[in-house]
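Table S5 (text form). Sequence records supplied for joint modeling of the two-component complex.
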Amino acid sequence: MAFAPSDEPVALKILVAGGFGVGKTTLVGAISEIRPLRTEEVLSDRGVGVDDTDGVEGKTTTTVAMDFGRITIREGLVVYLFGTPGQERFWFMWDELSYGALGAVVLADTRRLTDCFPSIDYFEQRGTPFVVAVNCFDGAERHEPDDVRIALDLDPEVPVLLCDVRRRASAKVVLVTLVEHALKTLTAAQR
Amino acid sequence: MTGPQWIDDEAGPVVRPYALTGGRARSSGDNIDLIALVTATGAPVGNTADIGPEQRRILEIASHGASVADIASDVDLPLGVVRVLLGDLHDQGLINVRPPVKAAPLPSERILKEVINGLRAL
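The corresponding structure-token record, covering 313 residues in total, follows.
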């Protein structure tokens, strides 16, 4: 395996996935300088049956906004965060985003746990290392990580943690947990 | 009335995005990775008719190297459009594109440990 020498710039990609309104934007914003990134994808046949274009047959593109954040570890070592819409209809973007990704954070809301099923299925199938971070919303009943693990039927090695995505310190713990998990996955694969 | 007041940022771009690419949605830039590093080669720009203000802006941003995502965000154009423009610039020898991770599906242990320490120190 070829390793990049230390003077070659290295860019890493971490995905932040989860259902609508679960706090993806807040998480990316808590830990990095957040910027909008627009994609205007040409609707292909993959959109057929998903995007109802009846009456707007002239519409050939669809606009999706992603959250995009950058963390500079040092000169020449940058981590990019991409907050991706969790719905299955955006999977055309996920294929591109997950390619070469270091790992993914699946954000979960215990009041709507099923929202993160598609993300978990996706990363399990792709073999992308991921952690499940349960965002503790004010007023939501708190659940122990182990209860969430059982409810989501996760493999024992997948880290599950509680977090408050509004807090930078909490967002840091989530990312560190993910990178540590990715490192473990990597060293296990090399053995 | 002094002109159409509703054309503000909220209204979106006045020019349809793919108008900038001559309507093309595909180019040699299709497969450029989102976090690939783009660097302007500094080669002289040929016929000025071939290159628009958006391409010039991209060359400016990429003069010291920038990722595709950074460029798309900076020029505030959809990724698909930026890829077409990057493909053209690459074909003209005006940019170099370096994939983010060569030869390895995951970065080295050393790099990951550096990232972990760097994140902790934030």
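Note: Residues 9-120 of chain B form a domain with the Arc Repressor Mutant, subunit A fold (CATH 1.10.10.10).
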